[in-house]
Amino acid sequence: MMCRAILIPSAVAGACATANAQFQSGPIIGWGDNFHGQASPPADTYIDFDAGFDMSVGVTASGASRNWGEGYPSGGFGPPPPIRVRASAGRQWWVELRDDGTVGAFGNGPSQVPPDLFTDIDAAQMWAAGLRFDGTLVQWGSVPPGPPQGLPLPSGSFVELSVGTYHGLARRADGSVVGWGYAEAGETTLPPGHYSSVSAGNLFSLGLRDDGTIAAVGVNSYGLVSNVPQGRFVAISAGSSVAGAIREDGTIVTWGNASTTWMAPPPGRFVRIACGSNYCLAMRDTSCFANCDGSTAGPVLTINDFICYLNRFAAADPKANCDASTVPPVLNVNDFVCFVGLYAAGCSGP
Fold first, then answer.
1. Of these four, 32, 134, 221, 232, which has the most CB atoms within 10 Å of its CB?
2. What does the alpha-carbon distance between residue 1 and residue 123 come to, in Å, rounded to a whole number?
3. pLDDT tens per residue across span 222-280
4. What phi and psi, each to the nearest 5 degrees, are found at residue 345?
5. Is residue 227 a contact partner of residue 220, using CB atoms and an 8 Å limit?
6. Residue 37 phi/psi, 5° resolution?
């Protein structure tokens, strides 16, 4: 269910490269339904994570996997080898992608993984799909219906995939998207356009357009399709009855069955999000906000960062929202105070 456009590993000679972003790592936080502890990730630094049906899984910076939630007390399968680079949770089971391209399956779910090498994987309740090295799709487990009940697994080469309860989405390098599986209310067909990311949930789908806006199709339970937030976003995730997205300034917005207090997203800036069954997980942004110009040569913080920040503020750039406030006016004097404080604190790196 998690959107994985931010990180797509490619196993090349046992190393992990990225197709469209650098590896991001950091702590993750959860909120929402936590009856089984699925929204309480163990403290660690993660490079990947996913929210499933009442259970969660993550990959730590050391390459070990950790799982928590229904049926699985906080634990893991480390230390490596093998080195994990990706993990995806279903319902009481999960799949792991290793740095050599092989995939393992664990828990109470489909255990017969195809003997292929993969660059990406995603799991739903009782099925999963993966992208082979050549970009073609393969699926296993209790896969969604094909014709005549549903759409067939598409052929061709793809760069990203996402699977929901009964359907899947795959994105081509040109930004076009094709779906397969059950299509009760059009959840397999995003509006025409160019997309940078896709996410398949429970009978609905989300697509992140190149301009940062969100498209939604499928069953409109809890307003998941009709109440899509406006604005520009950098990450999306479709869950079971909730959905979440990260705005350009790093703040989180949720919708769907998210009106209760316990579904209120946490404050702060984040870089990745995964929503499951009435709960979500997100990775905090641990980058140095004061390094506005993104310089890497020392000294990292200079007068150029002040000029950069002033220009962002003047242009009403969401990235100038230093204090991550969500109450209008979002940009105000508090953001200047916040920036000066972070600048004074310094950066250990870019």
1. 32
2. 7
3. 999 999 999 999 999 999 999 999 999 999 999 998 766 678 899 999 999 999 999 99
4. -70, -25
5. no
6. 80, 15
**Same domain? 261 vs 294:** no
- 3-class secondary structure, 313: helix
Choice among 112-116, 190-194, 195-199 with the minimum mean pLDDT: 112-116
Indicate whether 246 and 332 sit together in one domain. Answer: no
Instruction: Pull the structure tokens for residue 273.
Output: 């999000």
Q: Single out the residue in 284, 318, 333 at which a domain terminates.
A: 284
Q: Edge-to-edge strands of the sheet including 93-98? A: 84-89, 93-98, 103-107
pLDDT in tens, 109-145: 888 899 999 999 999 989 999 999 999 999 999 988 8
Q: CA 341 → CA 45, 300, 305, 345, distances in Å?
A: 25, 16, 13, 6
Phi, psi at residue 304, to the nearest 5°? Answer: -60, -30
Range of the domain at 94: 9-284
pLDDT of residue 259: 66
Are 183 and 189 in contact by the 8 Å Cβ rule? The answer is yes
Provide the residue type at 136 as one letter. Answer: T
Residues 241 and 349 in one domain: no
In this structure, the answer to whether residues 292 and 239 fall within a common structural domain is no
User: What is the rounded CA–CA span in Å between residue 197 and residue 85?
Assistant: 19
- Residue 264 corresponds to which tokens in the numbers above? 């209120």
